[in-house]
């Protein structure tokens, strides 16, 4: 099923681990260079700018091939343009296969053909079915899953998660108003199922190169679970999907449940992430808490925005200060000690950048009024006189 050499994909994981060990100081630069020379890996780019440049080049190449086929079939386009769109998708899949055989992996060129194939296929299905959202979502869900299993591209894992969610949403739409009313709860159950299933798969996973995709699905389920019960999201979707008219003195159904859900879930994420030392969940919980505050303030602006931001900043500063005081001496568990596997120079570089942009200068020591030198007294000074 997989198109790449499994050994080379495993070598990518080993090389990433060796790089992290080098940055953490466990191995030196020469040892890392020896390891990198011994591991054979596909052609790829870790630099996002270079990868984006090759992606644009791949888009130009893909569109040029599709344009060539359009020119040679110009006499048949009038009645068969729908078939031509399927041909564009086929070009994308054939191009992805060709680049994979040439050992391109995360290079940029292969990204353009893989994503382009999915996009043109979705357009072709939409044209043939007059925009049937359910059929488009199901088709992309299947093709993106097969593409991820074959090409191991993280973008396909994300596309699969989005397409699977869209398929479920369109399925609930087919049930009418009943499906739309219970949609938030169905999405919650779906995200919980994805979370625990991905956790189980991660524990029993034997192929390391699928780890990132499953971890992405796990993180996606956390975000989906929170958004499924967020008050602002549920209320706005109720107006958009059900055409609900919410009067000033009324509210949506189960409003108190969604109010509580909006704040309890982020707090649960934060507490659980600290107990389990889950950094990704910690970031998701922090962002969810910020969005929860925004969600309530969007409807109930009790204080002016300047006052609210000032109070929030003071509370955040106080919490951070006391957390640092409490954790800075801990050697195990939750601690404020620097992580050897993170780039500690990033904060120093950020500080230098901010200082340069604000025009700040290093602190200088004020010179004393007492004059030195000359050596006119005992002991001799800079003049060398006694």
TrEMBL record:
Keyword list, A-Z: Membrane, Transmembrane, Transmembrane helix
Transmembrane regions listed in the UniProt entry: 48-71, 83-100, 112-128, 158-176, 182-202, 214-234, 254-275, 282-301, 307-324
Keyword Membrane: yes
Descriptive protein name: DUF2157 domain-containing protein
Taxonomic source organism: Flavobacterium degerlachei
């Amino acid at each position: 099923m997989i198109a790449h050499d499994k050994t080379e994909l495993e070598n990518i994981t080993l090389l990433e681990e060796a790089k992290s060990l080098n940055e953490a100081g466990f191995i030196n630069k020469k040892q890392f260079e020896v390891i990198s020379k011994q591991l054979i890996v596909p052609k790829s780019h870790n630099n996002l700018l270079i990868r984006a440049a090759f992606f644009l080049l791949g888009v130009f190449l893909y569109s040029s091939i599709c344009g060539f086929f359009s020119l040679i079939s110009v006499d048949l386009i009038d009645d068969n343009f729908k078939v031509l769109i399927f041909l564009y998708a086929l070009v994308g899949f054939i191009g992805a296969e060709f680049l994979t055989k040439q050992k391109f992996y995360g290079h940029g060129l292969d990204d353009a053909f893989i994503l382009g194939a999915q996009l043109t296929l979705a357009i072709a299905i939409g044209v043939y079915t007059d925009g049937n959202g359910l059929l488009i979502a199901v088709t992309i869900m299947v093709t993106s899953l097969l593409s991820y299993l074959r090409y191991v591209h993280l973008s396909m894992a994300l596309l699969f998660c989005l397409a699977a969610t869209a398929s479920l949403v369109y399925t609930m739409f087919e049930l009418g108003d009943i499906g739309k009313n219970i949609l938030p709860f169905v999405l919650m159950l779906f995200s919980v199922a994805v979370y625990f299933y991905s956790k189980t798969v991660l524990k029993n996973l034997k192929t390391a190169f699928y780890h990132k995709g499953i971890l992405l699905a796990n993180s996606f389920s956390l975000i989906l679970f929170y958004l499924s019960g967020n008050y602002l999201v549920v209320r706005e979707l109720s107006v958009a999907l059900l055409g609900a008219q919410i009067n000033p003195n009324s509210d949506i159904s189960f409003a108190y449940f969604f109010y509580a859900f909006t704040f309890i879930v982020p707090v649960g994420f934060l507490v659980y992430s600290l107990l389990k030392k889950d950094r990704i969940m910690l970031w998701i919980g922090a962002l969810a808490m910020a969005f929860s505050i925004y969600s309530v303030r969007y409807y109930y602006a009790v204080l002016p925005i300047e006052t609210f931001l000032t109070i929030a900043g003071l509370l955040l500063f106080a919490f951070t200060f006391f957390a640092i005081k409490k954790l800075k001496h801990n050697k195990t568990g939750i601690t404020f000690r620097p992580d050897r596997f993170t780039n500690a120079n990033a904060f120093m570089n950020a500080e230098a950048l901010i200082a340069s942009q604000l025009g700040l200068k290093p602190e200088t020591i004020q010179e004393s009024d007492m004059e030195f030198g000359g050596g006119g007294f005992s002991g001799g000074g800079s003049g060398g006189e006694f």
